[in-house]
Amino acid sequence: MISGSVLIAALAGRGLAASARRAGYEPLVADAFGDSDTAEYAAHALCVKDAARIGFRTKQTLAALSDLAQRATSPPVGLVLGSGFEDRPKLIEVLARRYRILGNNAATIARCKDPRALAALLDKLSIEHPETQLRVPGDPAGWLSKRIGGSGGTHVASAEAEQGARRYYQRQLDGIPHSVLAVASGGGMQMIGISRQWSVGTGPRPYRYGGAVGPAEVATDVAASMQSAAEKLCAALRLAGLVSFDFLLAGKSPYLLEINPRPGATLDVFDDERGSLFHAHLAAAMGETPKVNVSMDVRAAAILYADPGSLDIGDEPLPPWTADRPAPGTHIPRYRPIATVYGSGASQDAALGSCRQRLDELGQMLYGQPRNRERNDNAEVQRPGPKRLFARSQAR
User: Fold this and answer.
1) Which of 83, 186, 355, 360 has the smallest number of Cβ neighbours within 10 A?
2) Which of 53, 68, 102 is the last residue of a domain?
3) What is the H or E stretch that residue 52 is in?
4) CATH number at residue 33
């Protein structure tokens, strides 16, 4: 049964499209990659030219969404924004004049992504966080440089390696990244789950998002501390819909790194076959207070990157445990994401073991094809060992 049409715009729209389809909606998707499974889930999907390289631009984004809205079988209930808009509040304002934004507005997103304002709010709420500043540290050793509004970890570098406008600096801490996924409404929130995350530290962007596993195994007092911080921030910022809070767990102390005021990658870990999280996001965005009950099976999702070298995607079908599948004929430049793999199991370690095996299998399959083997004959297929999957790192 179709509940109606909904517009989705994100750098990678497949996760939201899949959840919307499971929830009974007709997804109309504008994203940066145009993956084949995004097209399968969507009623209509358009790839926004150059968005993967330079981000979303007003003219191209408006044109894509207008085209999609005209193709809808019923007037779209609104527009859900995923990643790629956190550094574009003016674009969000333009979109809000044409469509109902189902989620946080431009002003709220800007507050979440203003490093100085967020650090001041965290101090006021007594939430621990790394030392943060806008000026370049006098001694950049031990500091990270991040782009304001960046996502996915590709914008993160050492402060020694990258400085400039629209960047801020965080003291680097030693710990393990975790994230709280919640649905916020009316100043309150329901915690969906905690995931343990990791970065893939190879290539020119050493802090890229690598994947997540959840529910994560954390001590009761640690989980309570993370939940308390998330509740305070939802109330203070009046957040709406699916949001996530990224922490670095240093010993038993969680340090808040950033807020993601939109649905994120852990939809793949926590959503169910009914699309309950998409339902919850829309309900919260419309002012309701949803109650969410999702399966807590242990699942993991990891990204395979083209670190050994560039490759071309052929007509060979990818395994069923993959997602974000590039369309045949796609050229993947070196270090860019290729696809997502899933794993599951009775425990966190079992789910991660499944992911590791499948990352290896998919990499060997793709780089073993003649057209790619010839190009990368001296490269070793990316092999994500335990240290990479559970990197102790600040970045996301």
Assistant:
1) 186
2) 102
3) helix 51-54
4) 3.40.50.720
Q: How far apart are alpha carbons 188 and 192 in whole angstroms?
A: 13
Q: CA separation (Å) from 376 to 266, 310, 335, 339?
A: 32, 8, 13, 18
SS3 of residue 245 by DSSP: strand
| pTM of the predicted model over 0.90 | yes
Q: Domain holding 367: CATH number?
A: 3.30.470.20
Q: How far is the C-alpha of 243 from the C-alpha of 381, rounded, in Å?
A: 35
pLDDT digits (tens, 9 = 90+) for 243-280: 999 999 999 999 999 999 999 999 999 999 999 999 99
Overall number of domains in the chain: 2
Q: How far is CA 57 from the centre of its chain?
A: 20
Q: Which of the listed residues 83, 102, 121 is the one where a domain comes to its end?
A: 102
DSSP letter string, 342-366: EEEESSHHHHHHHHHHHHHHHHHHH
∠ CA 251-256-262 to the nearest 5 degrees?
135
- Domain containing residue 46: 4-102
Residues 259, 338, single domain; the answer is: yes
229 and 347 share one domain:
yes
Going through 218-252 in order, the beta strands assigned E by DSSP cover 241-250
Whole-angstrom distance, CA of residue 285 vs CA of residue 78: 10
DSSP SS3 for 304: strand
Dump pLDDT digits (tens) for 126-179.
999 999 999 999 999 999 999 999 888 888 999 998 898 899 999 999 999 999
- Comparing C-alpha atoms, which of 378, 305, 362 is closest to residue 335? 305
Task: Report the candidate in 77, 304, 87, 280 with the shortest Cα–Cα distance to residue 188.
Answer: 280
189 and 88, same structural domain? no
How far is the C-alpha of 203 from the C-alpha of 191, rounded, in Å?
A: 35
